[in-house]
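Structure first, sequence second, as always.
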């Protein structure tokens, strides 16, 4: 469904060098949005660029009827987004795609690479903390990135978090996959894992998602991955975003990331196409 949503907020976050922005939209999207879905946003009134841009839903406030998205300026489309002012209306297609499974008990381990943390924030929001223990492992380039990407707000969500940075300026030095390995290898988790109560949800660059999936599968932990592909229509019509998956018998199939994804079972994704 194409909707006109009102821009409540559209502002830069943190250090300008990081090019990270927060946008809050008011309208109908919030009514049906679930964590893991995305919106397809028209970035300009003109036909240039023609295609909408996909952005993950990072926050859902059903009472205020608002959704929050965070975006990094990459090219023309996201640069044009920064020019949209408060109270302007934007054309939004969505909410689109599949969402994450929301566990009702046990432990949910979230593994985020860089701006891949954004879709996971809406998942943290809806978890019942009385029943599900949530832990976030978040890796980024450096402290400036982590702070600009909303570190303080994420801490305010009260989530148990461990971080890694490539240069060691915040958290452990290295990759988030190393944090994941040491967490899954640790004794504390074993009891839950044996009961099949641990689940992982992850978002980040494709190489990281592949590594996270392999680590999880070697520990027999189920993992859901949020994939990114370049998208045109966003609604399953153009087949521009297909990826290969294999079913339980090992047969190869194609799935549209915009329709059957972006959240898929990590074990079905064919990583080396
Ligand atoms: C389901 C989904 C959810 C997303 N959620 C977010 C989000 O929450 N926040 C956010 O900042 N970004 C997100 N993205 C990525 C975002 O859509 C792109 O960064 C954006 O479309 C780039 O548009 P542009 O016009 O600025 O850049 P373009 O001019 O279109 O591209 C600039 C460069 O970036 C590359 N590029 C563009 N899009 C992608 C992509 N999807 N994957 C790999 N390379 C790409 C291009 O090849 C090109 O080299 C998401 C993408 C998908 C598919
Ligand atoms: S973007 Fe057209 S089918 Fe997915």
């Amino acid at each position: 469904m194409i909707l006109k949503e009102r821009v409540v907020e559209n502002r830069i976050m943190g250090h300008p060098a990081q090019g990270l922005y927060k946008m809050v939209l008011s309208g109908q999207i919030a009514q049906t949005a679930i964590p893991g879905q995305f919106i397809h946003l028209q970035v300009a009134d003109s036909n240039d660029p023609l295609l909408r841009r996909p952005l993950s839903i990072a926050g859902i406030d059903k009472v205020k009827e608002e959704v929050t998205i965070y975006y990094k300026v990459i090219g023309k489309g996201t640069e044009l987004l920064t020019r949209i002012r408060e109270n302007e209306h934007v054309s939004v297609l969505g909410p689109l795609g599949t969402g994450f499974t929301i566990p009702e008990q046990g432990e949910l381990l979230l593994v985020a690479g860089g701006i891949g943390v954004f879709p996971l924030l809406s998942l943290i929001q809806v978890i019942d903390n009385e029943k599900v223990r949530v832990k976030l492992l978040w890796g980024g380039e450096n402290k400036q990135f982590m702070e600009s990407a909303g570190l303080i707000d994420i801490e305010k969500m009260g989530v148990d978090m461990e971080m890694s940075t490539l240069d060691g300026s915040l958290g452990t030095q290295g990759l988030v996959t190393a944090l994941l390995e040491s967490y899954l290898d640790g004794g504390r988790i074993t009891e839950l894992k044996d009961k099949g109560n641990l689940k992982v949800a992850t978002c980040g660059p494709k190489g990281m998602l592949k590594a996270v999936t392999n680590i999880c599968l070697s520990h027999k932990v189920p993992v859901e991955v949020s994939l990114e592909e370049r998208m045109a229509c966003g609604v399953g019509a153009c087949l521009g975003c297909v990826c290969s998956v294999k079913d339980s018998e090992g047969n190869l199939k194609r799935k549209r990331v915009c329709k059957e994804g972006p959240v898929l079972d990590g074990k079905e994704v064919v990583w080396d196409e």
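Margin note: The first helix runs from residue 29 to 32.
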